[in-house]
Amino acid sequence: MFRTFCWALFLISLLVACHQEKVVPPKPPQEAAPPAKVEPPPQKPQEEPDTEFKKLHYVIYEKGKLKWNIRAQEAYIFKGKRIKMKDLKVCAHPDKGFCITAEEGDYDPKAGRFLFRGKVILDAGRRGKLFTSVLKYLPQKESLETEAAVVIKNEGFLIKGKGFRYDLKSGAMKVLKRTKVRVDA
Question: What is the pLDDT along the chain (185 residues), one digit of tens a residue?
Fold first, then answer.
């Protein structure tokens, strides 16, 4: 019993020793720094379009053949340099057989490129449909490309990945990274 009493006394003294609070001397007061002035970043003034269209349908022929068929619910032309469109569908080169639909699109005639954003769908006919969030169409290079995530659906297969290139001249399509293929038998 004496042993039990000694062990209990030892454990109690150990607990008391471990539980002592340290006394920390107070820190000398520091001078409060004046609050830093945080200015919001300068905002660009909203550019006003020169011309606005509702329910635009624009068709371009080259050498008697249909080259472009563009439809948009809204279109805005800025200083003749850039065209911004909403709820659009662009079909180009019927011989190549593709149409692109998107929530928004920009056409820069100086750079010679289209940029599609928001629920972009590339319908390439027999080659299937591509779904992505951003897609560039470079008419001079005859190519379509994106770095965003893509899904390609066609009869019997589904391809997912990141990044995409479509060479319209050769018809070659390529998913650039993290490609996953599912084949339905």
Answer: 545 444 444 444 444 444 444 555 566 666 655 555 556 555 555 677 778 889 988 888 888 887 778 889 998 888 767 889 899 998 876 666 778 899 999 988 787 888 999 999 988 877 788 899 999 988 788 888 999 999 988 888 888 899 989 888 887 888 888 888 888 76
Domain extent for 63? 51-183
Domain holding 72: CATH number? 2.60.450.10
Render 119-185 in DSSP notation, one character per residue. Answer: EEEEE-GGG-EEEEEEEEEETTTTEEEEEEEEEEEETTEEEEEEEEEEETTTTEEEEEEEEEEEE--
> How many domains would you assign to the chain?
1
Instruction: Please name the residues in contact with 108: beta carbons below 8 A apart, sequence gap of 6 or more.
Output: 81, 82, 115
Per the domain annotation, does 139 fall within a domain? yes
Distance CA 80, CA 68 (A): 19
Q: In sequence order, what are the residues at sequence separation of 6 or more whose Cβ sits closer than 8 angstroms to the Cβ of residue 87?
A: 72, 73, 74, 103
Q: Is residue 22 part of a domain?
A: no
pTM: 0.68
**Among candidate residues 76, 39, 33, 34, the one with its CA nearest the CA of residue 54:** 76
